[in-house]
Amino acid sequence: MSARKVVPLLVTLAASGLVSLGAQAQSSMAMYGVVDITLGSYQYAGTKGSADNERTTKVDGNQMVTSFLGLRGTEDLGGGLKAGFMIETFLRPDTGAAGRMDTDVFWGRAANVWLEGGLGKLTVGRQGNLLFGQVVGFNPFVAAFGLSPAVRLTYGKWGNDRGDSGWSNAVSYSTPKMGGVVLTAQAQAGESTDKSEGASYALGASYSAGPFAIAGAWQSLRSAEAPKANFAIDQRQTFGLVSASYDAGFTKFFGQYGQFENRHFAGAVRIDTIFYQLGVSVPVGASGKVLASYGETKEKAVEGGTTPKTRHGIFTVGYDHWLSKRTDLYVAVMMDNEKLPNFEKGYSYVAGVRHAF
């Protein structure tokens, strides 16, 4: 059966009650998702007159959040133990296409099963990357691939992560919250027959108490799956990140600092990168927020790489207004500035609507 037919079939089955987790009263299943679409005028940093620096006005999707459709279910196994599953597919609402891009796997957002009890949670399958979870958890634009400086400079269009926001072939374990602390470990199997790709690992810790939260995470990346390119023998990237937030009531403050190190890559990706981000979220009445964030990366070549020392800064300011618990309208302006000879700044202007179901 083709991927194009899978989602309509699942929707029909879910709506008719034919899909279930079993007959037990403590089992449940839900269909859910988000659709995000915008009208905007987009321009990014690049050589003046180049395709990157040209302005384009278009209807686009996924500026504030990447649209997706998901199914999840849980079953109470008794004795405080639960089991569940999650499958989620990205989509592009401006065209109706599946995935974030043509090369994306169909269930690219999630495809996993999990067990959770008093000792914590174990998840097996494709799942969110631990470092990506921290990136989106400590910036005011959250998972906005189109607008968030933090996301764009790590996992997005200008990001230096060689993996993906999700890990395939992955296993993760998170402890229960203990005095405000949660510890997490994650591993991704390389699974290449020629041993060119190795296992990847990530470790994280977070603490939250009242208005304050802090987290740190580190990963060693030795493998990647579609839509990112496979690794070659001896290639490795490490990424460490420290993040914090404080909600003062009148404003919520965010800050992040991280470092990428690349080893044995070729050409322009032979770089090390320092990343930081500062942001605020300011409530406006009961339904609105002003969001502002500045992020910057500093790149330098290693091992004879060809990339010159580069500073890339992105500043975004926007207003997000919630019409209900599930629907919001937003506007934003983003400045994209990569400081290279003959490069010009780019300015994008976006108005969008997001609906969750």
Q: How many whole angstroms does the radius of gyration measure?
A: 21 Å
What is the number of beta strands? Answer: 20
CATH fold assignment: Porin
- Across the major sheet, the strand order is 1-4-5-7-8-9-10-11-12-13-14-15-16-17-18-20
Structural class: mainly beta
- How many domains, as an integer? 1
Shape: globular
CATH superfamily: Porin
The number of helices is 3
Q: What top-tier CATH class fits best?
A: Mainly Beta
Elements, N to C (H/E):
HEEEEEEEEHHEEEEEEEEEEEE
Strand content: over 45%
CATH architecture: Beta Barrel
Low-pLDDT residue intervals, each spanning 5 or more residues: 9-25
Distance between the termini: 26 Å
pLDDT average, as an integer?
91
Largest sheet: number of strands, sense, barrel closure: 16 strands, antiparallel, barrel
- Give helix % range: under 10%
Can you summarize this structure?
With 357 residues, this protein is mainly beta. It has 3 helices and 20 strands.
Task: Explain the overall architecture.
This protein has a single domain, classed as Porin, CATH 2.40.160.10. The chain has three helices and 20 strands. The protein has helices at residues 3-16, 130-137, 149-152; strands spanning 27-42, 46-47, 56-61, 68-78, 81-92, 97-98, 110-117, 120-128, 166-174, 181-188, 200-209, 212-221, 236-247, 252-263, 271-284, 288-301, 310-322, 327-339, 343-344, 346-356. Strand 4 and strand 5 form a beta hairpin. The longest helix is centred in the N-terminal third of the chain and has 14 residues, at 3-16. The radius of gyration is 21 Å and the shape is globular. The two termini are 26 Å apart.
